[in-house]
Design goal:
With about 140 residues, the chain is an alpha+beta fold. The chain has one domain (about 10-120): Small Protein B, Chain: A (Beta Barrel), CATH 2.40.280.10. It is built from 4 helices and 9 strands. It has helices at about 10-15, 30-40, 80-95, 120-144; strands at about 10, 20-30, 45, 50-55, 55-60, 65, 75-80, 95-105, 110-120.
Length: about 140
Amino acid sequence: MKSNAPKEFYNRKARFDYNIESDLEAGVVLTGEEIKAVRAGKINLTGSYVRFLSSEPFWVGGNISVASDEKDRSRKLLLTKIETKRLLSEVEQKKVSIVPLKAYFKKGRLKILIGVGKGKKKFDKREDLKNRDLERELKRKTKI
């Protein structure tokens, strides 16, 4: 019995709100009920971020719709010690944000692609929209 749920889940607002400089793949610690919900497509990455609690990375604000009341709980991310130290130093020194970009299954395990970047200002977002519209117009004109 195959599910029609998407295999990848995107956080579309992340690239609009942040200038992503680098990205990294991380595993997530989940319960069995949460894995079933993710396989059914009941996951939302919008508005979530990564926070360090006692030098360990946690995914905060990610919504996995489960029957219990723990749908908005913090979930631990699985990274190597070197990756964790690098991310922690970047957050402390460069004042960057870490946001999830995409969630997907790899060999039956849920992975999250996290991006490291700085937040965009309002004028940067307007400029991006303007450039996107110009590119779209150029593509239309070249097709004709």
